[in-house]
Amino acid sequence: xxxxxxxxxxxxxxxxxxxxxxxxxxxxxxxxxxxxxxxxxxxxxxxxxxxxxxxxxxxxxxxxxxxxxxxxxxxxxxxxxxxxxxxxxxxxxxxxxxxxxxxxxxxxxxxxxxxxxx
Amino acid sequence: xxxxxxxxxxxxxxxxxxxxxxxxxxxxxxxxxxxxxxxxxxxxxxxxxxxxxxxxxxxxxxxxxxxxxxxxxxxxxxxxxxxxxxxxxxxxxxxxxxxxxxxxxxxx
Lengths: 118, 108
Description:
heterodimer, A: mainly beta, seven-stranded mixed beta sheet, four-stranded antiparallel beta sheet, B: globular
């Protein structure tokens, strides 16, 4: 079964760091473009980060640029989101999603919750 | 950045009724790069429609996507109890994605 499972969420103080992981099963993650999408409590979906499968190209939304970065662990068939300088407004459920060539996301994880609060 | 505006914000309908959801873009979007998702409380989004009108695997044919340019529509021909949820449109371009703010379809 094709599946994505996020982990690493939790409570962190403003200014702190957190590293999220997204483990893939049923497919080879390195062969696909991948996105991170978040959803603040009671709000809509917000795309935050993209990584291209065939190169090290990464793009981030302006809201996280310079603070978040994405990396891949081919051996573990997983994706990571390193989040630094966290702010209260980064509080959200974070989803990883598989991206198809036309930009739609066909496989989503269940999400992991990040709470930034003192 | 392309802004997607969905309307209405909330749609109150009864099972068996037809739902028509609108997604308007601030500038022209390639139909290939327009998708719709369904999200239920506490769940991840689920892909319904891609390429503006193609149903994703396992999506029943009561869901229909249409439109081009700046105006796109998701139609649910006859609402089933499991269809009451929030629906988002999404576009992709230049390695960036934007979502509409969502339309909630609730039971009347």
